[in-house]
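note to self: the first set is below, dont mix up w the second
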Amino acid sequence: MVSHIPGNVLNGNFRVALYLDEGTSDPQQEALLNVYGGKLGGPVAELAKLIGEVVSVERTPIRFDVNEGRGTLSIGQVSQAVLEPYKGPDGSTTTLSNTIFSTVPGAPVFVGKATRYSSHHAELGHNIELAGHNALQSTFVFDG
């Protein structure tokens, strides 16, 4: 999902473009749209309540390689990110717990920086090239 959030994240009214990997089958697409549309409940349904408009649903190559918080993410030609975690004095990844910044209730958020982030999506008004901004990551597992 690539999003335009027009202010305070908790106020919602997100405009989003949904991307599915190019290898997604039609039944998988339907299932994923049901999840991200909030129709199946759970934590993602809470996120779906913040979406005001879905501007597009597209299939494109999605690639990610993340190991211990450091890595890359690309969504076709639309969005790319290079991430690295902040480390504490003992060398462990800086972590927030019990925070509203987690999109997965109860899951920790790993704090780091996006050494590079780009997003180019005309319908969302994105023509963004950033370097050295913050990045938040979390873990999740879809089970069942």
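second set (the one i keep forgetting abt)
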Amino acid sequence: MKGTFERREERTVPRAWRSPRTLPRGGAIPVGLAMLLLVYLAMPLLALVWRGVNRGTAHAFNDPLVHAALWLTFKTTALVVAIAVVLGTPLAIILARQEFRGKALVEGLVELPIALPPVIAGVGLLMAFGRRGIFGPILEEFGIALPFTTAAVVLAQLFVSVPFYVRAATLGFRAVPRELEEAAAVDGASSWAIFRHVTMPLALPGILSGALLCGTRAASEFGATLMFAGNLSGRTQTLTLAVMTAMETDVWRALALAVLLLLIAVGVVVGARSLVSGRDALI
């Protein structure tokens, strides 16, 4: 009876859907639409590389302003990633492992900067930490002025990029099988030993993937940085801000910076995908 039922159930499933490698009839239409979207996504990138690979762009890489923007972006991005790992990892563990009242509100607060326009984020930072902001007078009493400083760049980048780290790290910790941790506890391992030797190694691909995504989002930040930190060369001018400035005076310098950012983004995407593949292999 069981075998007959299974054979009847199998016959009710359309043959075109039995294999995940096949498409139903008329599959050429979704394939064509998908290809259209892929071509659209590829065209600006190919155009950027095509126009960017020339002597003028190569010469622009020797510009001191390009070096200054690159160095500032590297410093602020590295600091942002470090802060995100230190502060975001405990939050990711809590969101992945704990159930508490208001958890949905916390998750929404973490994800809100992703949906919030960066310019609005910059205005919010200015209203909070500017000289006339809520905490501005308190900071001035300690001799601290954040707007239009390198610290403002870090704060703006951190606000818009840390959700990417928290989300990826949370997924990494959720993917760790609880059975392995319980087995280690049964063998007498302490909580710290379990976290260090079981949880962290298995969640590490998600953590590293989140760090890469956080870093590339911080390096590409524009709106919040412009509103809160300004566009001061050598002080607050990151690579993206330098592209905007260069477009007004020297298109080759803008292309050089754009190609550089594109190469960084490609490296991050490849690295993130390889880490996710490694996590899937571990699971």
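remember for set 2: The CA atoms of residues 124 and 228 lie 9 Å apart.
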